[in-house]
Specification:
The chain is an alpha/beta fold. Its cofactor is [4Fe-4S] cluster; hybrid [4Fe-2O-2S] cluster.
């Protein structure tokens, strides 16, 4: 039977092969087709912008912003709004028509150097050449998608940095060059493999830029105890990743009698000094993104989705969902505003005042704030614990959480780790074990939370600094092992960044990506030691040996 759609970019894709009827994430075939059309058109635009750069022509900042926005919109669980996606395609097509009149673009077209994706400027929102399966060679397809998904992750990091006024023409230029390259039929598997690792290199730089944007704007994260109970006041819940959106909301709710809580990946905002001045910044509510249906129901007040990790809402609370930025869902209100613009959250504040306070889910507090600056401040204490044998291994358990029961493995793994092992984490995977009370080693907590998936850069900085302090030549000689959970495309750029930095023997789960063909998976296994997971007990034996 002919596929109604095909998507395999996330970990939960059907049967670990691909969603062909409707997406496990909740998107239908029409939405999937529109996202395919948006990516295809964006790749064509990227080729045009790459040609302009090569010929010394200026590339406007709003064109770079459009590429980043388009990529972010297609990340898993970001945007389900067909009309919004259709408008983005039309906007991209209009820009391509405008650029087609540039001299260097006309020359490329006359010399048959312009791809079909670039030449496609019609008002239609679909094209026969779009979609993953348009490439028949499974290894070439796999490498092209691996690069594309890595670039999507980069775009998310760069969009957050741009919201704080931090941009890089070099990084935008690489992303566009990479998107153009995946259209080039002359590139064989070896050339695409090289581009994959180059994507990891620029991924490190993108993460470093976002880290600088966040820390120079809000201060270095510091050890913080975060309340997980509730107060008896109306409130707004903020989910996603965008710290600038949270800052604007906190400014506008100050003195209104409305509290603000974080959810899922927004938890680490509590670690930044700049946000601690807001007395109405009440705490963290709930757990990882996939539990939002019951948790948003119980919250009672309006919920602001700033980025991806949006689960299609139930009708019972859909009228309380607001989106902004790249996020969107049909029937939910959207707060407009581009990077650098002031957003108006007055509608949310009015709505919150009409709602009951949130229902209590739990009580207590959780501790985090162990980004690279804070961990390096404890470097002497940590190195002494390593040299004395008090700490035998650091286990990087960063990444994403998800719905599958197989992810209970990560809770079992954390519980079964010996008492001389310390977990380094970033991302919502931490919700599988950050409330287990695993204790400490000489005052060093056994779960060191560096922050969002956006803060994975901290884990690389910590590893490289420990390598220097311990006088080691190879990062793989460190007492650090990697057991990473993944879900969407930001995890892909983190993986590629680690591979570029030379990290080997990463365990990746709960399944290996469906977009890795057998041939590409073999290369990753043989050259980098990438492996899947088995059982908690067996993996602890092999990783801690």
């Amino acid at each position: 039977m002919e596929n109604k759609m095909f998507c395999y970019q996330c970990q939960e894709t059907a049967g670990c092969k691909g969603c062909t009827v409707s997406g496990v994430c909740g998107k239908g075939p029409e939405t999937a087709a529109l996202q395919d059309g948006l990516i295809y058109s964006t790749k064509g635009l990227a080729q045009m912008l790459t040609i302009l750069r090569k010929n010394g022509a200026p590339v406007r900042e709003e064109w770079n912003d459009l590429v980043r926005e388009n990529l972010f919109i297609t990340i898993t669980n970001a945007n389900f709004d067909d009309e919004r996606i259709r408008r983005q395609i039309i906007k991209t097509q209009e820009l391509k028509r405008e650029l087609s009149q540039e001299k260097s673009i006309r020359e490329a077209a006359s010399e048959s150097r312009l791809s079909e994706a670039a030449r496609w400027t019609a008002a239609e929102t679909s094209h026969p050449g779009m979609g993953v399966l348009a490439e028949e060679n499974e290894d070439i397809r796999s490498l092209r998608e691996l690069i594309t998904y890595g670039v999507k992750g980069m775009a998310a990091y760069l969009k957050h940095a741009a919201a704080l006024g931090y941009r890089s023409g070099e990084l935008d230029g690489f992303m566009q060059k990479a998107l153009a390259a995946v259209l080039d039929d002359r590139l064989d598997a070896d050339a695409l493999t090289h581009l994959t690792l180059e994507t990891g290199k620029y991924g490190v730089e993108a993460m470093a830029l976002l880290d600088r944007a966040n820390t120079e704007t809000y201060g270095n994260p510091e050890i913080t105890k975060v309340e997980i109970g509730v107060r008896n006041r109306p409130a707004i819940l903020v989910s996603g990743h965008d710290l600038r959106d949270l800052e604007m909301l906190l400014e506008q709710t100050e003195g209104t009698g409305v509290d603000v809580y974080t959810h899922s990946e927004m938890l680490p905002a509590h670690y930044y000094p700049a946000f601690k001045k807001y007395e109405h910044f009440a705490g963290n509510y709930g757990n990882a993104w996939w539990r939002q249906r019951e948790e948003f129901e119980a919250f009672h007040g309006p919920v602001l989705l700033t980025t991806n990790c949006l689960v299609p809402p139930r009708d019972s609370y859909k009228d309380r969902i607001y989106t902004t930025g790249a996020a969107g869902y049909p029937g939910c209100r959207h707060i407009p505003g581009e990077a650098g613009e002031e957003k108006d959250f007055s509608e949310l504040i009015r709505h919150a005042k009409e709602c009951d306070p949130p229902a209590e889910l739990e009580r207590g507090e959780i501790t985090g704030g162990f980004a690279h600056h804070q961990v390096l401040a404890l470097a002497d204490k940590i190195v002494e614990a390593v040299k004395s044998g008090a700490i035998r291994k650091f286990v990087v358990m960063a990444g994403c959480d998800g719905r599958n029961r197989s992810r209970e493995y990560y809770t079992e793994f954390a519980k079964a780790l010996p008492g001389d092992a310390v977990i380094l984490t970033a991302g919502c995977a931490k919700y599988r074990y950050n409330k287990l009370d695993l204790g400490d080693i000489g005052g060093i907590p056994r779960v060191l939370d560096a922050g969002q998936c956006n803060d994975s850069y901290s884990l690389a900085v910590i590893a490289l600094k420990l390598k220097e302090v311990l006088g080691l030549d190879d990062v793989n000689d460190l007492p650090i092992v990697y057991n990473i959970a993944w879900y969407e495309q930001k995890a892909v750029i983190v993986l590629l960044a680690l591979l570029y930095l030379g990290v080997k023997n990463i365990h990746l789960g709960p399944t290996l990506p469906a977009f890795l063909s057998p041939g590409v998976a073999k290369v990753l296994t043989e050259q980098f030691g990438i492996a899947g997971i088995t059982t908690a007990e067996e993996d602890i034996k092999s990783l801690l040996a």
